[in-house]
Structures are given as C-alpha cells and as structure tokens.
Amino acid sequence: QKEVEQNSGPLSVPEGAIASLNCTYSDRGSQSFFWYRQYSGKSPELIMSIYSNGDKEDGRFTAQLNKASQYVSLLIRDSQPSDSATYLCAPGGGKLIFGTGTRLQVFP
Amino acid sequence: GAGVSQSPSNKVTEKGKDVELRCDPISGHTALYWYRQSLGQGLEFLIYFQGNSAPDKSGLPSDRFSAERTGGSVSTLTIQRTQQEDSAVYLCASSQASPETQYFGPGTRLLVL
Asked: Which of A47, A69, B39, B103 has its CA 20 to 30 A from that of B83?
C-alpha cells in the first residue's frame, strides 16, 4: 500500500460546479495535512492545511479530515478554469510524503 | 518578503559530471527540505534539515547524492557522477519549523545528457 493514495484523474468538472478531491494515507501518526496546488511547470503552492478532525473552510476551499478513516479531502466550490491544476495531498510531520496528485480540469 | 530562491534555474550537464544545486530559504526559516520531481511524477522527498539537528537523509536515492546546509541558511545539494535518470526538477522548500507549512522555491531543472 502506498503511503498516500490519490486518484490521478483527470477529474473534469464544469465551471461553477463543486470539485471533490480525495486522499487516503497510511501513517496513523500523521498529525498535520496539507493540500498543495501545482500548475504545469510550476512549483507547488499551499492551498490549505488542516490539523484537527472535521472541516476547515477558506474562501471557496474546504478541507475535511477524518483521522480514524485516514482520509482527507478538498472541496472546491464554484470551480473556475483557473483552478485547473494538479492537487497534491501531503500528510506532514517533518518531511512531506506527497501523493502523486489529482489533475483537475475545469471547463467553461 | 523574499521567497525561497534556487539556482541555477536550469542546468544541462553530461553524464558523469558533478553538479551543485543551491537553495536560499526564506529568512528566519529553520527547516529546509529538498525534493525531486521527475517528469509527470509526484514529489519525492530527498533530505531535510531542522535547525542544528542531524539531517534526515532517508530519501537520498544513492550515495552519489549529498547535501549540506551552512550556517543554518543556504543549502547545497550535490550530485556526483550524474546519470541520465537524475534528470528531474529539484525543488527546495523551507518552513519556520517542522512540521509547519512548507514554501517551495521555483526549482532547478536538471537535464543529464
């Protein structure tokens, strides 16, 4: 089992829809979780961090964490074409172990 | 303030040569990380430094790879006797501490011919 699992996609959603990105991880000791966005040819940039079970909202983004299920998700509301990128999940704790990412495509 | 900077932005080298990649972290950040991203792949952890502690070298793929961090700031990743499979983007990140949010530099694109 990989340490971090993400569906590679592409996940295609129409503009204005909700995009749901999911991630499972194997290390039960993980305490911090990060979602990064990476545009093609660019470096990852932080979207959200979450440390506690439940939901955390920031603008159009909501991160959801369930440590018992070892599951973390990212919801993007009112998706825009500019959201088209690869989204990387990373449980933290010093070094980050990244998933391979989910490619999101938002079409007009 | 200034972000993480890396140099060179691009490096083309011949197989068997040594290369040095530099990372200048955000001022005040005590933790520094190196990752590698091959074409179309995810990020692979290489090494991280936290303050004066011994670095975590668990991700280095072979003994041809080494890194140092001088004065708790600038870091250099050295690849000796480069191989074609070393071709990738090498990303550096820094954070105020570990496991706080990591901020990435623009990367160094390494091509080994």
From this structure: B103
